[in-house]
Specification:
There is one protein chain. Helix content is 33%, strand content 20%. The chain contains 17 helices and 21 strands. The protein starts with 10 loop residues before the first strand and ends with a strand. It is α/β, with parallel strands linked by helices and 462 residues long. The protein is globular, with a radius of gyration of 23 Å. The chain has a seven-stranded mixed beta sheet with strand order 11-10-9-6-8-7-21, covered by helices on one side. Strands 15-16-20-17-18-19 form a six-stranded mixed beta sheet, with helices on both faces.
Length: 462
């Protein structure tokens, strides 16, 4: 649906974070007189009222009856359409869309438009999106980097001149809104966001909508993921990574088929999972018809994203690693593997979404670190799974009330030597607004400038 199609409709915006603000700005540019209702929190309402928009009705409470008054509700991505009050209003005919849907419709209507690369996956999508944009810019291509990575698509709707490429990160909340991308990239699938999707099966279906519903021209998929192998024939030509014929890893080397292209050592991409992220990015460059082998060396100048295995530095003999983006047990396992053999403490736990922590427990059993500290809502559940190993003397296991206490306990056990890894494997709320606030708090507790670690390089058009 294009923005012009909202004319004459009863329209509301639900949520007034970055996405809601971008939606309002975009609608006002095209339809300055369209009456709109905004459903938002009390805190968000302060900023909304400051806009002095006399055609914006601001409400700080929402229910099913209110939502059914509207033909179209443009909702923020974090609001689930599968839960009350949205699900009830939808049964009465209210249509829920996101800002991404408006952008894709507007983009499709352009006479001259850049190619669109959509990237999703349970883990790694931000890094891969940023890597693709970095490599395209290294090739001299004007490239936009936006989406779930931290910049709403609608905020770049009027970008002039039109970028040659749009690199768009999509969460599972947004994949169903993609329309005719030139390349769809799916990295991996693990259970996540089950509270939003309602079930593991629906999460996979929503994530794979980028393949099954978006009508991509070409696919870039991970050959190491069984679910992705099963859906590979659903749409378009497919380029695989993590297989011997394409871009893959062997030890610390990146190969294209039998040709060695890069040595991962010395690159700002720690861990095997980041090596695979680079393989995915290079396969995408190849899918666009560019010389990925020639561009691969530019990975050396990539600026890593914050809160993703981010080395903060050393204080009093302890090295601090901020992996606050880690919201699944698989991510915590990947983080442990990056620092295998080190004298290490890891802090895990957060909001409990009911995920199975067996993969983490098995990794601890195989290669126990010096110390595991559990915290957060699911901390006791993780603690109970690891406790038999601690009783057997294989590692030290401690419980902490919060992150402040966890850091203090880790510092006490490590003394003046070792590595402290924050890789929670769980969401940050309700104690923090998001993973970035959690990461900044960790940096502050470790003695670093919390305001100096949060910027994502390369967002926008360049």
């Amino acid at each position: 649906m294009q923005i012009s199609a909202l004319e004459g409709q009863r329209v509301a915006i639900w949520g007034f974070g970055r996405e809601g603000q971008a939606a309002l700005d975009s609608i006002r540019k095209q339809l300055p007189k369209l009456p709109l209702t905004l459903f938002c929190s009390e805190a968000e309402a302060v900023g909304a009222r400051a806009r002095l928009d006399d055609r914006l009705d601001i409400r700080t409470a929402v229910d099913e009856a209110e939502l059914t008054r509207f033909d179209i509700v443009i909702k923020s991505p974090g609001i689930s359409p599968y839960a009350a009050p949205a699900v009830g209003a939808a049964l009465h005919g209210t249509r829920f869309i996101g800002g991404s849907a408006l952008w894709f419709a507007e983009h499709a209507a352009k006479a001259a438009r850049g190619q669109v690369i959509c990237v999703t996956g349970t883990k790694g999508k931000s890094t891969v999106s940023a890597l693709i944009a970095h490599l395209l810019r290294a090739a001299g291509k004007r490239t936009a980097l936006a989406g779930n990575i931290g910049l709403p698509l609608l905020s770049l709707l009027d970008a002039t001149p039109e970028p040659a490429y749009w690199v768009i990160e999509l969460s599972s909340y947004q994949t169903g809104e993609a329309l005719n991308p030139d390349v769809a990239v799916v990295l991996n699938l693990f259970p996540e966001h089950l509270d939003w999707h309602g079930s593991e099966e629906r999460y996979y279906a929503d994530k794979l909508a980028l393949v099954t519903q978006a009508n991509p021209r070409a696919l870039v998929l991970n050959a190491g993921d069984a679910r992705l192998r099963a859906v590979a024939t659903a749409a378009g030509a497919c380029i695989w990574f993590d297989n011997a014929a394409g871009w893959h890893l062997h030890a610390d080397k990146v190969f294209r088929g039998e040709r060695q292209v890069l040595d991962l050592r010395g690159l700002p991409l720690p861990g095997r999972h980041n090596g695979l992220n680079l393989c995915a990015a290079l396969a995408t460059i190849e899918a666009l018809g560019l010389d990925a082998v020639a561009l691969a060396a530019h990975a050396a100048s990539f600026v890593p994203l914050p809160h993703r295995l981010q080395r903060l530095g050393v204080r009093d003999g302890i090295e601090y690693i901020n992996d606050s983006i880690s919201t699944t047990p698989h991510a915590s396992v990947a983080a442990l593997d990056c620092f295998a053999g080190r004298r290490m403490a890891i802090i895990v736990g957060g909001f409990d979404r009911g995920l199975d922590w067996s993969v983490f427990v098995e990794r601890i059993r195989a290669k126990p670190p010096l110390l595991v500290i559990t915290q957060g809502q699911n901390g006791p559940r993780i603690h109970d799974r690891i406790e038999p190993m601690a009783r057997a003397g294989r590692l030290t296991l401690l419980a902490a009330e919060d992150l402040t206490a966890a850091v203090a306990k880790a510092q006490h056990v490590l003394g003046n030597e070792g590595l402290l890894l924050l890789s929670p494997g769980a969401p940050s709320f309700p104690r923090y607004t998001d993973y970035t606030e959690r990461g900044r708090h960790f940096a502050k507790l470790a003695g670093f400038d919390s305001n100096a670690i949060g910027a994502i390089a390369g967002l926008g058009v360049a």
